[in-house]
Specification:
With 262 residues, this protein is of the alpha/beta class. 44% of the residues lie in helices and 15% in strands. The protein has one domain (2-23, 42-259): P-loop containing nucleotide triphosphate hydrolases (Rossmann fold), CATH 3.40.50.300. The protein is built from eleven helices and nine strands. A hairpin with a 2-residue loop joins β5 (116-120) and β6.
Length: 262
C-alpha cells in the first residue's frame, strides 16, 4: 500500500463548476456479472474509505475530469434503506430488501453546482438520502449477505466504456479487484464530522456535530468489523489522508496517479 501525506492546506472545500451534461448510468443491459467483469479493456478507478471521508465528492470530480461514468455505491444502499423506510419494510425482511434492490431504477446526474444527484424512478432523492436515519439504516442493511450479492451484480454492470470511477467501501477489494487504480481515502473522525456538519447545514438540513461524530464512530465500527466485505484498504491501494487537504488537492493527486495508468 502506498501512503500519501499532503501539506497542510486551506480547508476551503467549495468548488465552483459549470453545469455539465447529464451522465446516465442506469444499467440497461442485464448481462452476466462474469461477462461484465471480464471487460478488462474498460478502466476502473476505485475510491474506498470510511463514512464522511469525501470519497463521493472526489470520485464524482475525477469522473468528470476524465469523462468516465460514475458509480456511488453507497447511494445504492441508501436508496434501498430509503425505500424500506418509506414503505415500512422491516430491515430484517431480506427478500423484500433484495427485491427493492433488484427493481430500483437509479440514475446519477451531475448538478449545476458540481454535486452528484441521485434519481430514483425519475425523482431526485438526493436530499432524502442525506438524512442521518437513512444513512444509519443503510449501514445496517449493508451487512445482509443476500442484499450485498444482489447489489454486487448490479454494480459491476456500471462498468462501461470509456471507463468508470466507483466509490464505496469494498470497490477495490471485492467489486472491482482488477481496477487500474485503487485509492483509499481517509481522514480523522473529527474532521469527517466537521465536513458532514457543514455539508448538511449548507443544504439546509439540521445537524448536530456531536451526534454526527457519534454516528461516524459507530459506522466505522460496523464497517470495519462486518463479516461480509469489511472496510479495509486493498493491498495494492494508494492511501490518501485528506484531513489537511482541500478537494482540489485530493482530486489533483488522484488524477496524477491515474495519468500514469490509463
Amino acid at each position: 500500500m502506498t501512503v500519501v501525506q499532503g501539506e497542510v492546506a486551506d480547508r476551503q472545500t467549495a468548488q465552483t463548476e459549470q453545469a455539465r451534461p447529464v451522465i446516465r448510468n442506469t444499467p440497461v443491459d442485464k448481462k452476466s456479472a462474469t461477462q461484465s467483469r471480464r471487460k478488462s479493456a474498460v478502466p476502473v478507478i476505485t475510491i474506498d474509505g470510511p463514512s464522511g471521508s469525501g470519497k463521493g465528492t472526489i470520485a464524482s470530480a475525477v469522473a468528470e475530469q476524465l469523462g468516465f461514468h460514475f458509480l456511488d455505491s453507497g447511494a445504492l444502499y441508501r436508496v434501498v434503506a430509503l425505500a424500506s423506510l418509506k414503505n415500512n419494510i422491516d430491515e430484517h425482511n431480506t427478500m423484500a430488501l433484495v427485491e427493492l434492490a433488484r427493481s430500483a431504477e437509479i440514475e446519477f446526474r451531475r448538478g449545476a453546482d458540481g454535486d452528484s444527484q441521485v434519481f430514483l424512478s425519475g425523482q431526485n432523492v438526493t436530499r432524502d438520502l442525506r438524512r442521518e436515519e437513512v444513512g444509519d439504516c443503510a449501514s445496517r442493511v449493508a451487512t445482509i449477505p443476500k442484499l450485498r450479492s444482489e447489489l454486487l451484480t448490479r454494480q459491476r454492470l456500471w462498468r462501461k466504456p470509456p471507463g468508470l470511477v466507483a466509490d464505496g467501501r469494498d470497490m477495490g477489494t471485492v467489486i472491482f479487484p482488477d481496477a487500474i487504480l485503487k485509492i483509499y481515502l481517509t481522514a480523522s473522525a473529527e474532521i469527517r464530522a466537521e465536513r458532514r456538519h457543514k455539508q448538511l447545514i449548507d443544504k439546509g438540513i439540521e445537524a448536530n456535530i456531536a451526534g454526527l461524530l457519534a454516528d461516524i464512530t459507530a459506522r466505522d465500527e460496523r464497517d470495519h468489523n462486518r463479516e461480509i466485505a469489511p472496510l479495509k484498504p486493498a493491498e495494492d491501494s494508494v492511501m490518501i489522508d485528506s484531513s489537511a487537504l482541500s478537494i482540489e488537492e485530493v482530486v489533483t493527486k488522484v488524477l496524477d496517479f491515474a495519468g500514469n495508468r490509463i
